[in-house]
Structure formats: C-alpha cells, structure tokens
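Follow-up to my post from last week.
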Amino acid sequence: MKILIVEDEIELLETIVSYLQNEDFICEKASTFFEAEDKIISFNYDIIILDITLPDGSGIDLLKFVKEKSSKTGVLIVSAKDSLDDKLKGLDLGADDYITKPFHLAELNSRVNSLIRRQKFDGNDTIQFNEIEIDPDSKSVTINNKPIELTKKEYNLLLYFVTNKDKVLTKESIAEHLWGDNIEMADSFDFIYTHMGNLRKKMKKLGAPNYLQTMYGLGYKFTDS
Amino acid sequence: MKLIQKTSRTYLLLSAIIFILSGVMLFFVLTSVMNNRLDEKLIYNKEVIAKRIKYDYPLTIFEEPEELTASEKLLYPNDTIIFKDTLIFHALEGVEGVEEYEKYRQLTAYETLQGKQYKIVTRNSLVRNQDFVSIITLSTIIIILLLLTGLLILNTLIAKKIWKPFYMNLDRLKNFSIQDQNIIELEPSNVEEFIELNSSIKNLTQKLQSDFNNLKEFSENASHEMQTPLAIMQSKIELLLQSTDVTKEQSKQLQSIYQAGQRLSKLNKTLLLLAKVENQQFSTKEDMSLKELIERQLENYEDFITNKNLKVTTKLSDDNIITNTVLADTLISNLLSNAIKHNIPNGTIEIIHVRDILIFSNTGLPLDQDPENLFSRFKKASTLKDSLGLGLAIVKKICEVNDWQASYSYEDNTHQISILFRT
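User reply:
Got it. Predicted complex:
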C-alpha cells in the first residue's frame, strides 16, 4: 500500500508518517503543492492524504489533478477548516473522505483502512485477526467461524480496535469514533468501559482470548502479544 | 418632553411675560400722558377762572362763594395746587335709573386773589379717557394673543418640517443592527447641525460594523490557526503513547497533557462553530424533517439516556422546517445533550414538536444561577466541571441567525426550553 501524505506542517507530516509506517504502509511525504504535484505525476499512489490549505496552492486543485490522472486513487482530505463548503466541494470533486484537524491518528488510520477496503475489494473484503473475521460489508463478525451477536456500538468498537491493533487507543479517541466529535459528556468514558466489558464477555464465550488490554487510565490496546 | 415643546414653551412663556409687562407699561404711560394733557387743561381752566375773578369781579357766573373753612385757611396758606382723581355721583337729567359714579380728574387750587383767598375747583370727566385707554389695552391684548397663537402654530409647523428627517433617522438608528451588513441609509437634511449629525452617525456605524467584522474574522481566524498546532500536539502525544518505554509515571503525565489538549481542542472547535454561525456561514437552507433528525439524535445518545435510566417521550409532528442541516443537527444535539446532562437519575425527557414550536422538557434540580445567564457563553452549572458551558450559547446563536425565539422556564422540577420557529 503506497500512501502520499501532503501536509505543509512538517511536524504533523512526520507524525502521520511515523504512525502509518508502523501500520506497514509505504509512506511518501510532500509539504508543498509543487512537491506533491511532482510526486503525483511521477508515481502511482493507492491513497493520498491531502491537506487543503497549502502555502503555494489549493489542495482542491491538487484533488482535481489527481482524479484526472487516475480516478482509482483514494483521496482523504484533511482540513483545518471545518466548513461544509470545503467538505461538499471536496466530495463533489471525487474525494473519498474528509477529516478535520485536529484528529486522532487512530481515526485517520481507521479511515485510511476503510478507504483501502472500499477501493481494493469493493468492500467485499473481510478483515482477519487471528480467529476473528470481520465483514465490513454486512457488518457481521465471526469468531472461530461462529457468528457473534454484536450491537452497533460494539461492532464499531471492535472494528476500530482491529484496524488499530497493537496501538494504544485513548478513551477520547474511542468516544469520538463512537459518538461523533460533538459529544462532550464525561459519561461517555463509562460507556466505553461497559461496551468493552460486554465485548470481552461475548468474545470469550466464543473462545477468543482476551485481546483487550487496559492501559492505566489512559485507554485500551487490542493486541495478541 | 420633546425638544419642540420645550423650546416653544419657554419661548411662549417669555413672550407672554414680555407682552404682559409691556401691556401694563403701555397702560400706565397712556394714562399718565392723558392725565398730563388733562392737567394742563385743568390748569388752563383754573387760570381762566382766576382771571375772571381778578378782572370780572364780582363773579356773575358763579353763586356767591362760601367762606373757606378755618382749617383750610390754615392748611393752605399760600397758593397751592392739588390734583386728584375722584368719583362723583352723576345722574342723567330726565332719565330715570341712570345713576352712576363717574371718575373725574379734579384740580383744587388755593389762591389769593384781590387780597382774598379762593379755592378754585375745576374737574374734567375721565370717562372718555378711560374708555380710550381700555380700548387700546384690549386691542393690544387681542393682538398679543393672535400673535402668540400664530407664532406657536408657525413654530410647530416649521419645527415639524425641520425635525422630520431627524425623527426618521432616529427610527432607522433604532432598527440598526451591528450584524447587518447594510450601510445605514439616512434621510438628508439641509440643516447644518443635522448634516453634521448624519455624517457622524454614518461614520460611527461604519466603524462599528467594520470593527465588528474584524473581531468576528479575528476570532474565526484565531480558532482556525489554533487547529493545526493542536493537531500536532495531539498526534505527537498519541504517537508517544504508543512507545513501549514510557513509564507509568510518565504515562500519567502524558495523559494529563493529552486531556488538557483535548479539552482545548474541543473548546476551540466549539468557539469556531459559534463564530461560523455568527458569520452566517451556514446559509444554505433546505426542507428537512425535524422528526427524523430528532430520532437519529436520540439513537446517538441512547447510551447516555439508558445510563441515567431516563424515560423519553416524544410527540413529533411530520411538519418539515426549512433551515440549514448542519445548524439543525447541532441545535437538536445540543438541546438533547443538555436535557440529558442536567437530568436526574430515573428522570424524564419530553420532546414535543407541533406546528412551529419545539419544546424540550426535562426533570432536574433547580438552576443554581440566574436564568437570564442561561444562554450566555461559559455560564454553566457549577456541578458539571466537564461541561464547556457553550451548548446553550450555540442554541441561542442558531436561533438568532434563523430568526427563531428560544425561551426557558422552570416549573415543578422541570426545565423547559422552547424554540419558536417563526415562519
């Protein structure tokens, strides 16, 4: 999987790259419009993570250019402007997803993964983690080939964990992923705890080991190590 | 009191005083002038009589004069002239019933003629003079009254015409809103003071508007500019959290930093949203079903509702409203989260939408603050430290830009927020 990350803030660029490299993606960096254009002309990418506001041009123009060159490339727009106009314009022009700064790296990773799934396998791919198999298309999960009944929230939780396996996911990032980013209720952390407990129980019932680790009061980690 | 009334009242009062004073003066001057004339005539008459006494002795036209009394002789030893006004009973001959006192001007002269002391009395009726003076005074008063009313009417008319642009502009100023992007249109006037006033108002309002716009832009830009550094901060910490060689102690500290950053970023996002709503950036409106929206939000908040064991009842009409989808979504989400947050365990939430009114009622403890402040920014219940205190400020802002009315009431342990969609 080859990803081009276009972001003018070097610090942010480096962070995104190092997080995604950990996920075994091949990452290329571009910090200016010119540099990005150059790379897009020369290489083919599966995914482009594109910041709309660049010092020497608009990411929207870059998006048009990408879609003209190869419409198969998935584009994830990143913007500091949480404006609907930008979002609609971007999606109209063929962007596949949109994320607003500041975002959680796990969320970005999860979006990139879902983009890849949609792109490569038309959504018919299943995600495998040891004995767990997730079918994003039908939103169903099997463990050891036995179907597991999950609520919508539990399913989303599991998918988020599996896409970000071996990573510490903060409570905040989980809450935002589950309830959207305008949730500001402290209670939400308790619900994560409840959902987590239920998920653990259901998975244990079907013979899956406890992959969910609690990280101090910080968050959770889904890992088999 | 209006300026016109005030000035014309003073003006009228002053004129009345002046006119009354001058009337009184006129009366006295006229009387004294006439008396002088009369006195001269009386003196002349006296002289004639004195001459007659001197040369025409014995007097034929008069009866034999009486002797002067001793006291008079003593009182007026020399020639003395006394003027005085006196009333004399007067009866018209042959006409019954016409009897009246008439005013006379009388001259009494004591004079020694031919070695003998005489008292000569001449008098002249004042009736005609008096009539004359009264007629003059009366006509003066009538003229004064006419003049005053005329002046008053004229004054009011002119003032109305001159002040008309002023009052029109005053009305426009009252309706002026700083959020309006329109420049205020003022009625022109040819009065120098008003021209000056108009240009000052124009400058002032333009400056107000531009300052307001700058401020709005500033807060929006500031929030925007903060997004990127916040994103860097957040992602760096998230990356750091992944590394295995962080000790438990360090991780705790990282967690504090991370949570503070999260809070800051939420706050920033909310402020940005407020600024955007204020800047009318959500202007595209569409026909949308409030019912669907509310049901979707209820689903999203399901965990929170079941956690507090709240009982939700809804009575939603199928009427659509026309507004911006993002704003409507934010509005409902904020109202609902507010109703959940400030609820008591096992409480109730009631959502009613009929025609153009939307009501969110929820059980809860009484407010620990002034309901006036409920919709203000950063006013929050002291018990909820995790709340930003911006939820209802956003609700209010959304209502403002849509020309809706939001109101709050508390009764029987139930908080009620109603939104009136004026269509």
